[in-house]
Amino acid sequence: ISSFGSDKLKREFLAPAISGDVVTCLGVSEPHAGSDVAAIKTKAERRGDDLIINGTKLWITNGAHADWICLLANTSQGPPHRSKSLICVPMKT
């Protein structure tokens, strides 16, 4: 987020995490893929102004306590190592 995130992402997610005002987690591992990032199945697709995310994540440290998650999802077609994005999602969503 620090290197590639928009100013909005930095304000909404990064700054509160750094200050300790929120708890965050990272969602990468999946039941059938484990830590094999190229094999993840979670997809995120744009539908109008919304981003629809479908998939399953496991083994997430702080997942039960987090205010937001930075999750890995497939966002385009193509080679598995080039078709993914990290997406910040409030856990209330």
Automatic annotation (TrEMBL):
The keyword Flavoprotein applies. Gene3D superfamilies: Butyryl-CoA Dehydrogenase, subunit A, domain 2. GO terms for molecular function: acyl-CoA dehydrogenase activity; flavin adenine dinucleotide binding. Pfam families: Acyl-CoA_dh_M (PF02770). Residues 25-92 form the Acyl-CoA oxidase/dehydrogenase middle domain. InterPro entries: Acyl-CoA_dehydrogenase, Acyl-CoA_DH_CS, Acyl-CoA_Oxase/DH_mid-dom, Acyl-CoA_Oxase/DH_mid-dom_sf, AcylCoA_DH/oxidase_NM_dom_sf. This is Acyl-CoA oxidase/dehydrogenase middle domain-containing protein. It comes from Darwinula stevensoni. The lineage of its organism: Eukaryota, Metazoa, Ecdysozoa, Arthropoda, Crustacea.
